[in-house]
Amino acid sequence: MVSAIRFTGTGPGAHTQDGCSVELYRRMPADGEAEIVAGVVAAGGTILELGSGPGRVTHALVALGYAVTAVDNSAEMLAHVRGAETVLADIEDLDLDRRFDAVLLASTLINFPEAETRAALLTASRRHVRPGGVVLIERRNPDTFATLRPGPVGEEAGIRHVIESVRHEGRLIQATLRSEAADATWTQSFTQEVIDDERMAAELAAAGLRLDRWLDPRRTWGLAVPA
C-alpha cells in the first residue's frame, strides 16, 4: 500500500529535499529538452527554468543563445549553474518582477503527488509568462507510467538506471531508482501521480492556462498558453 509520500536518496554527495543527488544530476547530460524549447521559442528569447538543478538543461539552452533564469531551492544545485541568472527559491513562492517569453516546468514536476502543490507550480508558471508567451510542461507518459515495473530503464553518460521496486495504489506510484556509475551508486525513492490528458487540462485551466498542443508523439511535452 502506498500510504506515505516519501522522497529520500542515498549515495555520495549532497542531496536535495526530494532525494536528488547533486553529483548524479551534475553528471547527467541534457536529453533533447533544449531542442524542444527551440522548436517553439524564438532564438534569443527569455526563459524561466523552474527546478533547474545543476544546469543540465540550462547549459544547453544558454548554448543556443537563450537568456535563462534558473530557479531551484537547492543552493548546492545552483552552485553548478553557469551562464545564467540563478534564483534560490521554492517554485511555489516565486514572484519575480518580470515576465518571460517561456516558462519551463520540466523534470516531471507536474507529476508531484499532491494536487495543492501541482496547482501552486502551475500558478507560478502562469504568473511569470508574458502575454503571448508559452509554458512548456514535461509529464510522464500516463500509459507507460501506469504500468511501470522493476527493471533496467536506460543508460546515459556511463550511468545505468534500474527501477528497484514499484508499488501502485490508484493513481499514485511509489518507486526506487538505482543509478550506477563506475565509481558510485545512488538511489532515489519517490512518489508520483499519473496525470492523464483530462486531469492535465483541468489543472491547467484552474491555473489560468490552456493546453495548446503536444510537442512530441508520446505526449510527454505539452505547450500551454495563458487562457
UniProtKB/TrEMBL annotation:
Q: Which organism is it from?
A: Inquilinus limosus
Instruction: Give the residue spans that cross the bilayer.
Output: none
Q: Which domain of life is it from?
A: Bacteria
Q: Does the entry feature the keyword Transferase, yes or no?
A: yes
Q: Which molecular-function annotation in GO is an example for this chain? A: transferase activity
What's a Pfam family in this record? Answer: Methyltransf_25
Q: What's in the keyword line of the UniProt record? A: Transferase
- This one is known as Methyltransferase domain-containing protein
Q: Which CDD domains match?
A: AdoMet_MTases
Domain (Methyltransferase) spans: 47-133
